[in-house]
Amino acid sequence: MQLIVKPDYDTMSWAAAKIVVNIIRANTKTKLGLATGSSPQGLYGQLVEYYYERALSFSRVETFNLDEYIGLPHGHPLSYRYFMETNLFKKVNIDIGKTNFPDVYNADLSEACSNYSRMLKENVRDVQILGLGVNGHIGFNEPGTGIDTKTHVVELQKSTILANSRFFNSIEEVPKTAITMGIAEILEAEKILLLVDKKTKHDALIKLLAEGGFDSECPVTALQKHKNLTVICTREAFDGN
Ligand code: F6R
Q1: Which of 9, 13, 34, 36 to mutate to test the pocket of ligand 1 (most atoms within 8 A of CB)?
Q2: With a 6 A CB cut-off, is 62 part of the ligand 1 pocket?
Protein backbone atom coordinates (compact mmCIF):
# COMPACT_ATOMS: atom_id res chain seq x y z
CA MET A 1 0.00 0.00 0.00
CA GLN A 2 1.22 3.48 -0.85
CA LEU A 3 0.04 6.31 1.40
CA ILE A 4 0.25 9.96 0.33
CA VAL A 5 -0.80 12.64 2.82
CA LYS A 6 -1.52 16.04 1.25
CA PRO A 7 -2.08 19.37 3.01
CA ASP A 8 -5.60 19.91 1.69
CA TYR A 9 -8.35 18.90 -0.75
CA ASP A 10 -6.88 20.65 -3.79
CA THR A 11 -3.42 19.12 -3.43
CA MET A 12 -5.05 15.70 -2.89
CA SER A 13 -7.02 16.18 -6.13
CA TRP A 14 -3.96 17.30 -8.12
CA ALA A 15 -1.94 14.30 -6.96
CA ALA A 16 -4.79 11.96 -7.90
CA ALA A 17 -5.20 13.61 -11.31
CA LYS A 18 -1.50 13.12 -12.13
CA ILE A 19 -1.83 9.39 -11.49
CA VAL A 20 -4.98 9.05 -13.60
CA VAL A 21 -3.56 11.16 -16.44
CA ASN A 22 -0.43 8.99 -16.57
CA ILE A 23 -2.59 5.86 -16.75
CA ILE A 24 -4.73 7.29 -19.58
CA ARG A 25 -1.61 8.37 -21.51
CA ALA A 26 0.12 5.01 -21.03
CA ASN A 27 -2.74 2.91 -22.41
CA THR A 28 -4.11 2.86 -25.93
CA LYS A 29 -7.50 2.02 -24.41
CA THR A 30 -8.17 2.86 -20.78
CA LYS A 31 -10.93 1.45 -18.61
CA LEU A 32 -11.68 3.64 -15.62
CA GLY A 33 -13.72 2.62 -12.59
CA LEU A 34 -15.33 5.80 -11.28
CA ALA A 35 -16.92 7.03 -8.07
CA THR A 36 -19.23 10.00 -7.56
CA GLY A 37 -19.44 12.31 -4.55
CA SER A 38 -17.31 15.12 -3.22
CA SER A 39 -14.06 13.15 -2.80
CA PRO A 40 -13.28 12.75 -6.55
CA GLN A 41 -14.98 15.97 -7.71
CA GLY A 42 -11.72 17.97 -7.62
CA LEU A 43 -9.92 15.18 -9.47
CA TYR A 44 -12.55 15.31 -12.24
CA GLY A 45 -12.15 19.10 -12.38
CA GLN A 46 -8.41 18.60 -12.90
CA LEU A 47 -8.98 16.03 -15.67
CA VAL A 48 -11.20 18.57 -17.43
CA GLU A 49 -8.38 21.15 -17.13
CA TYR A 50 -5.92 18.72 -18.72
CA TYR A 51 -8.41 18.16 -21.55
CA TYR A 52 -8.89 21.92 -22.13
CA GLU A 53 -5.14 22.34 -22.35
CA ARG A 54 -5.19 19.66 -25.10
CA ALA A 55 -2.94 17.58 -22.90
CA LEU A 56 -5.33 14.65 -22.60
CA SER A 57 -7.88 12.85 -24.76
CA PHE A 58 -10.74 10.67 -23.59
CA SER A 59 -11.52 9.29 -27.05
CA ARG A 60 -10.21 5.86 -26.07
CA VAL A 61 -11.48 5.86 -22.50
CA GLU A 62 -14.34 3.68 -21.28
CA THR A 63 -15.84 4.11 -17.81
CA PHE A 64 -17.65 1.93 -15.28
CA ASN A 65 -19.28 3.68 -12.36
CA LEU A 66 -19.52 2.09 -8.96
CA ASP A 67 -23.15 2.67 -8.22
CA GLU A 68 -26.48 4.31 -8.99
CA TYR A 69 -29.58 5.10 -6.94
CA ILE A 70 -32.76 3.14 -7.60
CA GLY A 71 -35.96 5.13 -8.06
CA LEU A 72 -34.81 8.47 -9.45
CA PRO A 73 -36.17 9.27 -12.93
CA HIS A 74 -33.82 9.40 -15.97
CA GLY A 75 -31.80 12.63 -15.98
CA HIS A 76 -32.57 13.46 -12.33
CA PRO A 77 -30.01 16.06 -11.18
CA LEU A 78 -29.08 13.96 -8.16
CA SER A 79 -28.59 10.72 -10.08
CA TYR A 80 -25.01 9.57 -10.29
CA ARG A 81 -25.10 9.59 -14.09
CA TYR A 82 -26.08 13.27 -13.99
CA PHE A 83 -23.21 13.94 -11.55
CA MET A 84 -20.72 12.29 -13.91
CA GLU A 85 -22.11 14.07 -16.96
CA THR A 86 -21.89 17.51 -15.39
CA ASN A 87 -18.52 17.00 -13.69
CA LEU A 88 -16.71 15.12 -16.44
CA PHE A 89 -18.43 13.39 -19.37
CA LYS A 90 -20.02 16.46 -21.02
CA LYS A 91 -16.84 18.50 -20.57
CA VAL A 92 -14.43 16.14 -22.35
CA ASN A 93 -14.34 14.17 -25.61
CA ILE A 94 -15.56 10.88 -24.18
CA ASP A 95 -17.98 8.74 -26.18
CA ILE A 96 -21.08 8.81 -23.95
CA GLY A 97 -21.94 5.30 -25.21
CA LYS A 98 -18.80 4.10 -23.47
CA THR A 99 -19.87 5.35 -20.03
CA ASN A 100 -21.45 2.54 -18.06
CA PHE A 101 -23.61 2.32 -14.94
CA PRO A 102 -25.69 -0.46 -13.39
CA ASP A 103 -29.07 -0.35 -15.18
CA VAL A 104 -31.37 0.70 -12.34
CA TYR A 105 -34.22 1.20 -14.84
CA ASN A 106 -34.40 -2.51 -15.67
CA ALA A 107 -37.68 -3.88 -14.24
CA ASP A 108 -35.70 -7.00 -13.28
CA LEU A 109 -33.02 -5.69 -10.92
CA SER A 110 -31.35 -9.05 -10.42
CA GLU A 111 -30.90 -9.26 -14.19
CA ALA A 112 -29.47 -5.73 -14.13
CA CYS A 113 -26.95 -6.85 -11.48
CA SER A 114 -25.85 -9.95 -13.36
CA ASN A 115 -25.54 -7.97 -16.62
CA TYR A 116 -23.28 -5.43 -14.92
CA SER A 117 -21.22 -8.19 -13.27
CA ARG A 118 -20.70 -9.79 -16.68
CA MET A 119 -19.66 -6.46 -18.17
CA LEU A 120 -17.16 -5.89 -15.36
CA LYS A 121 -15.71 -9.35 -15.82
CA GLU A 122 -15.13 -8.63 -19.50
CA ASN A 123 -13.64 -5.19 -18.81
CA VAL A 124 -10.93 -5.17 -16.16
CA ARG A 125 -10.47 -1.61 -14.95
CA ASP A 126 -6.98 -0.12 -15.26
CA VAL A 127 -7.72 1.97 -12.20
CA GLN A 128 -10.64 2.12 -9.77
CA ILE A 129 -11.20 5.50 -8.15
CA LEU A 130 -12.86 5.31 -4.73
CA GLY A 131 -14.15 7.64 -2.05
CA LEU A 132 -14.72 6.44 1.51
CA GLY A 133 -17.95 6.52 3.50
CA VAL A 134 -17.90 7.69 7.12
CA ASN A 135 -19.02 4.16 8.07
CA GLY A 136 -16.23 2.59 6.02
CA HIS A 137 -18.27 1.83 2.92
CA ILE A 138 -16.76 1.67 -0.56
CA GLY A 139 -19.19 2.00 -3.43
CA PHE A 140 -22.41 1.30 -1.55
CA ASN A 141 -20.98 -1.78 0.13
CA GLU A 142 -22.20 -1.02 3.61
CA PRO A 143 -20.89 -2.54 6.87
CA GLY A 144 -21.79 -6.22 6.96
CA THR A 145 -20.96 -6.79 3.28
CA GLY A 146 -18.83 -9.84 2.49
CA ILE A 147 -15.56 -9.62 0.60
CA ASP A 148 -16.83 -11.94 -2.18
CA THR A 149 -19.84 -9.85 -3.17
CA LYS A 150 -20.54 -8.97 -6.78
CA THR A 151 -22.91 -6.31 -8.13
CA HIS A 152 -26.03 -6.28 -5.97
CA VAL A 153 -29.00 -4.24 -4.75
CA VAL A 154 -28.38 -2.54 -1.40
CA GLU A 155 -30.50 -0.97 1.29
CA LEU A 156 -28.59 2.15 2.29
CA GLN A 157 -27.82 2.54 5.97
CA LYS A 158 -29.24 5.44 7.97
CA SER A 159 -25.80 7.07 8.29
CA THR A 160 -25.33 6.95 4.49
CA ILE A 161 -28.82 8.36 3.84
CA LEU A 162 -28.06 11.13 6.31
CA ALA A 163 -24.65 11.88 4.74
CA ASN A 164 -26.20 11.99 1.25
CA SER A 165 -29.17 14.12 2.32
CA ARG A 166 -26.94 17.22 2.06
CA PHE A 167 -27.60 17.12 -1.70
CA PHE A 168 -31.40 16.74 -1.43
CA ASN A 169 -34.12 19.13 -0.19
CA SER A 170 -35.03 16.77 2.62
CA ILE A 171 -33.91 13.42 4.00
CA GLU A 172 -37.21 11.85 2.80
CA GLU A 173 -36.18 12.48 -0.80
CA VAL A 174 -32.94 10.47 -0.54
CA PRO A 175 -33.38 7.08 -2.27
CA LYS A 176 -33.16 4.18 0.17
CA THR A 177 -31.83 1.63 -2.29
CA ALA A 178 -29.13 1.49 -4.94
CA ILE A 179 -27.21 -0.96 -7.11
CA THR A 180 -23.52 -1.16 -6.33
CA MET A 181 -20.50 -2.91 -7.73
CA GLY A 182 -19.46 -5.60 -5.24
CA ILE A 183 -16.27 -5.65 -3.19
CA ALA A 184 -14.90 -8.60 -5.19
CA GLU A 185 -15.31 -6.59 -8.39
CA ILE A 186 -13.72 -3.47 -6.91
CA LEU A 187 -10.69 -5.61 -6.02
CA GLU A 188 -10.40 -6.84 -9.63
CA ALA A 189 -9.08 -3.48 -10.86
CA GLU A 190 -5.37 -3.37 -11.76
CA LYS A 191 -4.92 -0.38 -9.49
CA ILE A 192 -7.03 1.23 -6.77
CA LEU A 193 -6.88 4.93 -5.93
CA LEU A 194 -8.67 5.79 -2.69
CA LEU A 195 -9.31 9.45 -1.88
CA VAL A 196 -10.05 10.43 1.71
CA ASP A 197 -10.79 14.08 2.26
CA LYS A 198 -12.46 14.67 5.63
CA LYS A 199 -11.77 14.12 9.33
CA THR A 200 -15.14 12.37 9.67
CA LYS A 201 -13.55 9.46 7.76
CA HIS A 202 -10.47 9.27 10.00
CA ASP A 203 -11.58 6.18 11.96
CA ALA A 204 -12.31 4.13 8.83
CA LEU A 205 -9.04 5.32 7.26
CA ILE A 206 -7.04 4.25 10.32
CA LYS A 207 -8.66 0.79 10.25
CA LEU A 208 -7.49 0.39 6.67
CA LEU A 209 -3.97 1.65 7.42
CA ALA A 210 -3.66 -0.63 10.47
CA GLU A 211 -3.63 -3.62 8.10
CA GLY A 212 -5.39 -5.85 10.61
CA GLY A 213 -7.18 -7.93 7.97
CA PHE A 214 -10.68 -7.71 6.50
CA ASP A 215 -13.43 -6.61 8.89
CA SER A 216 -16.84 -6.70 7.21
CA GLU A 217 -18.00 -3.99 9.64
CA CYS A 218 -15.56 -1.64 7.89
CA PRO A 219 -15.65 -2.67 4.19
CA VAL A 220 -12.71 -0.47 3.14
CA THR A 221 -10.41 -2.89 5.00
CA ALA A 222 -10.91 -5.25 2.02
CA LEU A 223 -8.49 -3.01 0.10
CA GLN A 224 -5.60 -4.29 2.26
CA LYS A 225 -5.68 -7.36 0.04
CA HIS A 226 -5.02 -5.39 -3.14
CA LYS A 227 -1.53 -5.51 -4.66
CA ASN A 228 -1.59 -1.99 -6.08
CA LEU A 229 -3.41 0.36 -3.71
CA THR A 230 -2.65 4.07 -3.43
CA VAL A 231 -4.37 6.03 -0.67
CA ILE A 232 -4.29 9.81 -1.01
CA CYS A 233 -5.71 11.63 1.99
CA THR A 234 -5.74 15.13 3.39
CA ARG A 235 -3.81 16.00 6.54
CA GLU A 236 -7.20 16.54 8.23
CA ALA A 237 -8.40 13.02 7.40
CA PHE A 238 -5.08 11.51 8.49
CA ASP A 239 -4.89 13.39 11.81
CA GLY A 240 -8.61 13.28 12.54
CA ASN A 241 -8.73 16.90 13.68
C1 F6R B 1 -20.01 7.18 -4.67
C2 F6R B 1 -19.75 6.09 -3.73
C3 F6R B 1 -19.57 6.32 -2.26
C4 F6R B 1 -18.78 7.57 -1.93
C5 F6R B 1 -18.68 7.77 -0.42
C6 F6R B 1 -17.98 9.06 -0.06
O7 F6R B 1 -20.13 6.68 -5.99
O8 F6R B 1 -19.71 4.98 -4.16
O9 F6R B 1 -18.92 5.20 -1.70
O10 F6R B 1 -17.50 7.48 -2.49
O11 F6R B 1 -19.96 7.78 0.14
O12 F6R B 1 -18.76 10.14 -0.52
P13 F6R B 1 -18.18 11.61 -0.56
O14 F6R B 1 -17.01 11.58 -1.47
O15 F6R B 1 -19.29 12.47 -1.11
O16 F6R B 1 -17.81 11.97 0.83
Answers
A1: 36
A2: no
Single-letter residue type at 17? A
104-148 per-position pLDDT tens digit: 999 999 999 999 999 999 999 999 999 999 999 999 999 999 999
User: What pTM does this model have?
Assistant: 0.97
Is there a domain that residue 178 lies in? yes
| Closest residue by CA, ligand 1 atom 3 | 139
pLDDT confidence tier of residue 57, bands split at 50, 70 and 90: very high
CATH of the domain at 38: 3.40.50.1360
Catalytic residues: 67, 135, 137, 142
Average pLDDT, the chain: 96
Domain coverage including residue 231: 2-197+210-239
Q: What is the pLDDT of residue 226?
A: 98
Cβ atoms within 10 Å, residue 233: 25
Cα separation, 11 vs 78, whole angstroms: 27
> Within a domain: residue 96?
yes
Going from the Cα of 131 to the center of ligand 1, the distance in angstroms, rounded, reads 5
Q: Residue 164 pLDDT > 90, yes or no?
A: no
The yes-or-no verdict on residue 63 having pLDDT over 90 is yes
Would the CB of 139 count as within 6 Å of ligand 1? yes
Ligand 1: centre distance to CA 132 (Å)? 6
CA distance 222 to 201: 16
Give the dihedral sign, CA 145/205/234/227: negative
* Structural domain total, the chain: 1
Q: How far apart are CA 232 and CA 174, in angstroms?
A: 29
Question: 196 CA distance to ligand 1 centroid (A)?
Answer: 10
